[in-house]
Write a structure and sequence with these properties.
Shape: elongated
Low-confidence stretches: 1-8, 399-403, 462-469, 475-502, 570-574
Oligomer: single chain
Helix content: 25-40%
Mean pLDDT: 79
Radius of gyration: 52 Å
Largest sheet: 8 strands, mixed
């Protein structure tokens, strides 16, 4: 409550302060019954068959000097002041908590006695056979006992004995040790007890817990001295206090044993006990400095718990600086305490697991144990940790799996004749760990160069998170296998894998004869393309045929289909294989494929699925039955995918495959999910804007060649496309331009090695000598349904008009020319005839834009001719909308 000055004189503070001061006479003190703590030396009453019941202890009247002191106990109990002196009355340790009002006890004294007995009994319950009337101080384990005794004078609690001549004295401190005395025949060693600087008889002393002693007078057992020890008694000191009567004259060391005693036993005794020579007859060496004790606790699961403490000697000693015991750099920096903590500081506790525990236990614990002033204390069973330092030897194998496209990649690493478990090794490499701990306690360093290369290779074989029973290698990853072979000391490929490697590693594919049913003369580069396609078909490998426009990609594909048909026909004994090839093209190119197939492979049965068949009741299965080639469009594949999925196709050819380069599109998903083992992507532009497009195509034709799109972007796309910010891990992360350029060059070279067997890309410059002087290609464009209906309507109308004019053709020549021009305009675009038909799509204009995309992607220039400037205006508008630059020429230029 704030104090405020009142009035101009400001005298309010005086009244406020006076309210805090007591005035008048103090309140009278109530007349309470005083309490005292009574001490009595008790003797343990032995139990016999005739005497089991009754008190377990009894008062000691006379001390029998021949009786062992371990039969005595010091008991205390509450007593109250009566007219005849101190008496127990009806007070007991059990009922004193309830006697405050009944016996008119002082609340402060009553509280002290309740705390006293509660603290004693907190150590454990009262066991049968204990004396409930007495608290035996020998068992008082809590050192707070001495603080309670210090409170008794202020509380008015007396410390009394059991008779009128009793005397109880509390001293300040006790020191227990050994006294070494030189005698004429050797050295005498006696227990030595000092209380308040004065010697006390050890044989009459008994321990109070481990924190003090009481001493009784044999002539008058009621005379007692209690003293707290300067430091807790250890096991050796308690053994001295609990020992039987000492040997008269003490323990004697003969003359011939003095050297051994001084050099061997005395230093060990000084570590555990206070040793001195009271009379100075023996010159004692100074006690050793406190030892830094490391407690290493081994638990299950390769866990190691470390804790540090200074082991205090019995003599008062100043703790040393940690640096004087543990050299700098011996332990991790974070283990050293802050220098500001001063002397006597220790490293903090730590828990080491797995490889850290193994390395510390095998290397550091022996070194620490050899340091002067350091003692290592082992708790638990230490595993037999040992480091394997030999050179790793590696063997790689492939084993065919149930899935034809995959092989189990077996990599066996041995170090010092010990086989390293497969999965833990690669998990450790994938997580960038520097060491690997094995289950038997051995461990090895993963810093060997072979392990670093192995980690890079295995991450390309397959994502570690996707492993089930072990890593797999896809049959498309042949260049990756060669790098494994270079790394390994031995390789054992499977039979199927050896055959595949032999063909891929050949300088040129195994040549095949042109199929007899092919009605075309293949130029040398086209024959090379057929050889390459036949190799792919033989091993059921998908790929990308990426020749420039005009190099005859279609005829090479038809040559392959004819080759397969004749090969399967010879094997099956029939003219053609039952299963057809599915060719998917843009709508504008489908009819050209049919005409080219009929021209170059007339023996093959070619069928086309267009919008008419798609809307009819004729199913895809019925169309494919008995056919060698089925041609359809990307739009129809997307709209009726389940029907195409239901047919067992011999192969899939994706013409103008840039239509499926968008991995997020539905048509890409359809091409990816169609269950066909052989897939061929045909495009003059396998990559236009980004390497991601290349990955999308290979994901369809060569699944397993690369990992996920995310990992492909991380390993290849971002480093190669010179976006260094995207490199977040591995070599080149945040490095200088020179390092980034080196990483880009290495990644590009690796990518080229990976795709080399599965991408055939030839430009016109490369095969210029083999090209014909000129090539012509006629594309037949199917009009949209509404456009076709309108054209047929005008066709019939103009036909009827012209049929009546045939008798005088010369006179009506202009009318005939007008009708033909009208039909030509209508065949191009219905809106050229009348703007009311602007909603009808122009199939020829769509086909033109499709062709231009491929021409421009190959960086060619194109000339677009039309007799009608009105149509050129429409072409210009579509080019503007598509963002394609052009130059316009007509008669007005």
């Amino acid at each position: 409550m704030p104090i405020e000055a009142s009035g101009a004189t400001g005298t309010g503070w005086r009244a406020a302060l006076e309210s805090y001061l007591t005035t008048g006479e103090p309140d009278p003190v109530p007349a309470y019954t005083p309490l005292a703590l009574q001490f009595e030396l008790r003797e343990i009453v032995p139990r016999t068959a005739q005497r089991w019941n009754g008190p377990p202890t009894r008062a000691v009247k006379v001390i029998d000097q021949k009786q062992e002191k371990r039969t005595y106990r010091l008991g205390v109990r509450p007593v109250a002041r009566t007219s005849r002196g101190w008496a127990r009355g009806n007070l007991t340790w059990s009922n004193i908590p309830h006697m405050a009002n009944r016996s008119n006890l002082d609340p402060a004294q009553h509280r002290w006695f309740c705390q006293f007995v509660a603290i004693h009994r907190a150590a454990g319950p009262i066991n049968p056979g204990n004396d409930p009337d007495w608290v035996l101080l020998d068992d008082f384990s809590n050192p707070v006992f001495w603080q309670l005794l210090q409170q008794t004078p202020a509380l008015g609690i007396c410390l009394v004995g059991s008779n009128a001549g009793a005397q109880v004295r509390v001293s300040s401190g006790a020191i227990l040790g050994l006294d070494v005395v030189r005698t004429g025949s050797g050295i005498s060693i006696n227990p030595h007890l000092v209380v308040d600087g004065e010697p006390a008889p050890v044989m009459n002393a008994r321990a109070i817990g481990s924190h003090g002693v009481y001493i009784f007078d044999p002539a008058n057992p009621a005379t007692l001295t209690l003293a707290a020890s300067q430091s807790p008694f250890n096991a050796e000191e308690l053994a001295i206090l609990d020992a039987p009567r000492p040997v008269p004259g003490g323990l004697r060391v003969p003359e011939d044993g003095i050297d051994d005693f001084l050099t061997i036993y005395l230093p060990k005794l000084q570590e555990q006990l206070s040793v001195e020579s009271v009379d100075g007859s023996v010159v004692l060496p100074p006690p050793a400095s406190p030892a830094l004790v490391l407690t290493a606790t081994f638990t299950t699961g390769h866990n190691l718990e470390l804790s540090w403490h200074w082991e205090q000697r019995r003599q008062p000693t100043t703790l040393p600086q940690l640096a004087s015991v543990l050299p700098k750099g011996l332990l991790p920096p974070q283990w050293y305490p802050n220098p500001d903590e001063g002397i006597g500081s220790t490293p903090g506790p730590a828990i080491l697991r797995d490889i850290e525990a193994a390395e510390f236990a095998s290397k550091m614990l022996p070194r620490l144990g050899q340091l002067h002033g350091v003692r290592v204390q082992i708790v638990g069973v230490a595993p037999d940790y040992r480091e394997l330092t030999g050179t790793p030897l590696m063997t790689v194998t492939t084993i065919a799996t149930a899935r034809d496209d995959w092989f189990n990649l077996g990599i066996v690493v041995t170090v010092e004749g010990r086989t390293i478990p497969f999965t833990p090794l690669f998990r450790a490499l994938a997580k960038g760990r520097s060491k690997l701990l094995l289950v038997d306690g051995t461990y090895l360093s993963l810093s060997h160069p072979a392990f670093a290369q192995l980690a890079e290779l295995i991450s390309e074989a397959k994502d570690l998170a996707e492993w089930e029973t072990g890593p797999l290698i896809n049959k498309y990853q042949t260049s990756l296998w060669s790098e494994f072979e270079d790394l390994a000391d031995e390789s054992v490929p499977a039979l199927q894998w050896r055959e595949l490697l032999a063909d891929i590693n050949a300088d040129v594919p195994h040549p095949v004869a042109p199929p007899s049913g092919l009605r075309a003369e293949l130029r040398p580069y086209q024959q090379e393309g057929l050889d390459w396609l036949a190799f792919l078909w033989r091993h059921q490998l998908g790929a990308i045929l990426g020749d420039d426009m005009g190099l005859g990609k279609t005829v090479q594909c038809l040559a392959l289909v004819q080759h397969v048909a004749e090969l399967d026909g010879a094997v099956l004994g029939g003219p053609h294989r039952v299963k057809p090839f599915l060719v998917v093209t843009p709508t504008s190119v489908a009819s050209n494929w049919v005409s080219e197939a009929n021209r170059f492979t007339p023996d093959l049965v070619v069928r086309q699925i267009d919008a008419t068949e798609a809307n009819s009741e004729l199913s895809v299965t019925e169309v494919a039955a008995g056919a060698d080639i089925v041609v359809t469009s990307y739009a129809l594949l997307r709209l009726n995918f389940e029907a195409y999925r239901g047919v067992d196709w011999n192969g899939l050819i994706l013409d103008e495959a840039q239509f499926v380069k968008n991995a997020a599109s539905r048509v890409h998903e359809c091409a990816l999910e169609l269950p066909v083992r052989f897939k061929l992507a045909v495009t003059g532009t396998p990559m236009e804007n980004s390497l991601a497009e290349l990955h999308s195509l290979f994901a369809i034709v060569a699944p397993g060649l690369f990992a996920s799109a995310r990992k492909f972007a991380e390993q290849y796309a971002r480093p190669i496309e010179n976006r260094p910010v995207g490199i977040s891990r591995g070599r080149g992360a945040g490095s200088s331009p020179a390092v980034i350029a080196q990483v880009r060059s290495e990644r590009l070279a690796t990518l080229r090695r990976r795709i080399r067997p599965f991408l055939l890309r030839r430009t016109k410059d490369v095969v210029a000598a083999d090209l014909p002087a000129k090539q012509e290609q006629t594309l037949t464009v199917e009009l949209a349904v509404e456009h076709r209906d309108l054209y047929d309507l005008f066709l019939q109308r103009e036909r009827q008009k012209l049929l009546g004019l045939l008798q005088d053709l010369d006179k009506n020549r202009f009318v005939v020319f007008r009708s033909l021009t009208l039909l030509r305009l209508l065949a191009l675009d219905a809106s050229l005839l009348d703007s009311d038909y602007a909603h009808i799509p122009s199939s020829k204009l769509d086909a033109l834009l499709e062709q231009l995309e491929e021409v421009l992607a190959e960086r060619h220039r194109a000339l677009v001719f039309s007799q009608f400037t009105s149509y050129l205006h429409k072409v210009a508008k579509r080019l503007d909308k598509a963002g394609i630059a052009y130059t316009y020429l007509d008669g007005s230029t």
